[in-house]
TrEMBL record:
Stored InterPro entries: AsnC-type_HTH_dom, Dimeric_a/b-barrel, Tscrpt_reg_AsnC-like, Tscrpt_reg_AsnC/Lrp_C, WH-like_DNA-bd_sf, WH_DNA-bd_sf
Keywords assigned by UniProt, alphabetized: DNA-binding, Transcription, Transcription regulation
Protein name, per record: HTH asnC-type domain-containing protein
Gene3D superfamilies membership: 3.30.70.920, Winged helix-like DNA-binding domain superfamily/Winged helix DNA-binding domain
Domain of life: Archaea
Domain HTH asnC-type: residue ranges: 3-64
One Gene Ontology term from the biological process aspect of the record: response to amino acid
GO molecular function, one term: sequence-specific DNA binding
Any one cellular-component term (Gene Ontology): cytosol
Amino acid sequence: MDLDNVDMKLLKMLVENGRATLSKMANEVGLSTSGVRRRINNLEENGVLQGYTAKLAPEKAGYDIAAFLNIDVKPGDAGRVAGALTRCKSICEVHKTTGDHSLIAKIRAEDRTEISKFVEDRVSTYQGVRDVNITMTIETYKEELIDL
């Protein structure tokens, strides 16, 4: 799907405020509310917009620690391990990567002990997982899905 300037403006407005009204967006981009609705529906149908969520401040919700799990997986097992990780509540992101590790997963938890226990009791037991290295964050300066 080719996105024009109007589509990009609508996406930016929705990323900044998912509760923006159609009339406010219409005024901003110079379209009618039905025109904006049609464009948003098109963005949803084409998978550009994948849903609407509340933006959570992890630390204020008790998820004080973020870490990255660098996971080495046997060839052919990355998809299955990634699928298992995506079903875990505390996992925020899962990526297949090049380089030293097969997968990288971002996890948020209440404390270091919870992350260590999750890796020891779950991730390291998944079939095909060879090794898991944990990189704990010290401070998070920016955590956004995408900034348009």
